[in-house]
Amino acid sequence: MGSDPKVRAGAVDVVRHWQDSGYMIIYVTGRPDMQKHRVVAWLSQHNFPHGAVSFCDGLTHDPLRQKAAFLQSLRTEAEITIVAGYGSTKDISVYSSLGLAPAHIYIVGRAVKKFSNQCQFLSEGYVAHLAQLEAVALAHSPKGPPRPVLGKGTYGCPAPVDFLRKQSQLLRSRGSSQAERDGGPPPAAPGLPRAKPRSISLKLEGEE
Prior knowledge:
Blueprint: H1 11-20, E1 26-32, H2 36-45, E2 52-56, H3 63-77, E3 85-87, H4 92-97, E4 105-108, E5 120-122, H5 125-139, E6 170-173, H6 178-181, E7 200-202
Parallel strand pairs: 1-2, 3-4, 4-5
Antiparallel strand pairs: 6-7
């Protein structure tokens, strides 16, 4: 809306932590797609790690429903496992509808009692939260280097900027995980999952 919202301290580092750990970053907003260039410019200006970006199709009276539908399509069509979700108290219902455990739903800001059993409030901010994530990562030290599933040079697509917005734009899974090819189940770890998500191929508007 013509403003330059301030970035909360540590927010960029938290997103970078997940990317460096090998996870795909997906930014989901209730803003209309007419604001896509401005939003992506803001993400780039403030050095947020690159990832896919999802907007609502035009103006809507129910952005939360569109958010949930988009994330659900990632699970069913692309077989992506969502391991953590961040947002405001309004997003709790979105993540809960996906079956995401309260321990992996992170809400920034002051704790609200009625939601205390539905999420983890980051009352001490992203800097303190990052320290907790790093402690968990150290306890589950990886056996190899992280493998990002989306290139670090793009917000979901090459220039000119197009965006992953619609369920029909999910093209296909790029294959089973190494563990599945070896005949075993995908790895799982207690607490915050450390296993790498399945890679996917994305077909974007304007891309041949």
